Each structure stands twice: as C-alpha cells, then as structure tokens.
Amino acid sequence: MPELSTESKSVSQNTAGPDGTRGGRGALLRWFLILFLIFAVLGVYSVLQRRTEHQVLAQQTERMTVPFVSVIHATPIDGSSEMVLPGTLKAYVESPIYARTNGYLKNWYKDMGSHVKSGEVLAEIDTPEVDQQLAQARAELTTAQANLALSDITAARYQDLLKTESVSHQDADNANGDLAAKRAMVQSAEANVKRLEEMESFKRVYAPFSGVITQRNVDPGTLINAGNGGSATKQMFDLAQIDPMRAFVAVPQSFGPSIRLGTKACLTLSEISGRTFCGSVVRTANAIDPSTRTLLTEVDVPNPSGALLPGAYAQVHFDVRLSGQRLSLPINALLFRPEGTMAAVVGADSSLNLKRITIGRDFGNAVEVLEGIDPVDSVVINPPDSLQQGEQVKIQASSK
Questions:
Q1: CA–CA separation, 104 and 101 (whole Å)
Q2: What does pTM read for this prediction?
C-alpha cells in the first residue's frame, strides 16, 4: 500500500505545472471554450431567425399594400324597354286661405279632410271693431250728404242773385267751390263706407275653388289679423284641388328628346297594387336644370275617386321606347368624386382605371349607365374611397 501511494503521488507531480495548478487551468479553459461555442451558436441562430422574420414581415407588408378587390360586369338593359321614372304627386291647385279682416274666429265649418265646393263658407269671424268703424263711416256719410244738400241750395241761390247783381261774382264762385268740395267729401265718405262693407263681408271666409281641406290651423276664439291666420307664419286653412293630379318627373337629359306633349304616361304606386292611373304629358320646362341635368315634366292624371294623394311618390311609365345599348350598375359600384360619378375598372395589367360615367335612370338599388363603361369591363364592387388612378390591385372574386 505505501508503494502505491508513492507512485500515485509521483504521477500527480508529473502532470501538474511548475506551480501545481496546470491541470485545473486546462479544465477551466475547456469549459470556457464549450460555453463560448454554445453562445456563438445561439447568437447565430437568433440572428438568422430575426432575419427570417424580417423577410417574412416585409413580404407580408408588400402583399398587404396591394389591395384585393371584387369585380363585377355591368348588366345590359333591354334596349326596347319602356321608360320608367320616379315622380312626385302634387295637387292641381293648392292655396293657403288667409283672413282679410281683423277679429276673433267665431266658428269654423269645415275641418281637415272635408270636401268643399267653390263659394262654400269655411269659417266666420267676429269683427266688432270693423262693425263700429262701418257705423261711424255711415254716420259721416250722412253728415256729408246733408252738407252737400245745403251747399247745393246755397249755390243755386247765389246763381239767382247773381242775375240781378245782388251778389258779387266772387261770392257766387265761393258758393260753387264749396258745393264741389262738399260733393267730393260725399264721394270720399261713400268710398270709405264701401271699403268697410267689403271688410265686413270678409268676416265670412269662402272657398275660392272646389277641393279638399288639407289643414286647419285655427279654433274659435283665435285672434285673427288680416293677412294671416292667427300668427305671422300660419294660414287659416290649406285648400287643394286633387282632381286632376299633377305628377312632376325629372327626366334625364338623354331622354329629353323622347318626351312629347300628349305622350301617354301611367302611374303606379306600391301601396295601391294592381291599379294604374293613366294621363298624358301636358307641359315641360323647355329647359335643362344645370344642377341635375334633367328636364322637369308635368303629367296630368284624372283622380275622380281621390285615390291619389298630394305629396305621394309614384313610378311614371312613359309610353316611349328607348333605343341603343344601356347598362345597369349597382349603386355600391359607384365612386363619387369632385370630377363626377366614377367607376373603378380593373385593366389587363391589374391596374385601376377610374372612368367617369353618365347616369340615366335610378332603379333604387341600381342605376342606368348611359356611357363611360363597356359590358366587358371588370368594375370594382364596394370600392374604397382610397383607390387611385393607376393603382395596382388583385382580383379576389368575379361575379355577375
């Protein structure tokens, strides 16, 4: 055993350094190199992973910069279809009824919805002030007539006395002048009486034409001032003549040449299904409205039953045929820009071409396109407002 210990000690001394620590330093160096390699590998892996992530992000960002769009094609419209346009119904004659005298409303005889004849009494006004003014004017007229009679007798006597030169010519002229003045005063008093009699006659409000009362704004006891119905903004009644009815239609400029006086036109209303009300074109504005590029057209339609109501919306079917190729686009395919109404068309190179279009009829959820696009054009549906001319896009879907 002692010999083995001596040998082991000898070996240890041979492997140690001059200071006895060479073996420990070598092991420490090896562990340092191993750790360095591990961290180096981890660092390289991290750098490569980040570079890959940046490349993927850049590719995704580049893909996202090119928007995806869905496209459709415009739908052709039958060139021989009839022309149908929206219209607004209005009464043939409509007038507010105001008072022409002052007082208080005594009674009203016709209410909203009442059918009245021309000259029928609508209301009666109590006019105590006008009555008193009329009584005073009549008394003044009686006084003026009495003065006139006296002046007439005086002037006649002066004329007789002038023959015998019992009075001077000046006195006779004064008498004649006074007679003329008294006669003028009588005429003025008579005119004032007639004026007040007319004012008093206005205490009864009459219907100026046959029609229906569409509004009543006064009640008994309401203060009535001449020219309005109790306030500065309201009238006593609204009266409308609803037979016949007027239908006003804004005809697009491109269809203007198709409209002729006497052209047959029929009205349909969604709330009155199965019925049509036919009339004819009676007049046009003979001018294109520069703000809407439309021709205002009036169609008169008989309405003896009163089924058509003023202010209603109707579809007006004109008895004309449209020629030429016409297209239809849904309203969610339109772009509204300061330059006008646009359609975004995708070209063969996947670039956008914003085309200005001319719109004809409005079908509600679609519009008629008169010019600007072709049936083969791929039009972007639901286009975002950010789309620009020449922008690159990718087509996601295509439907008709």
A1: 10
A2: 0.56
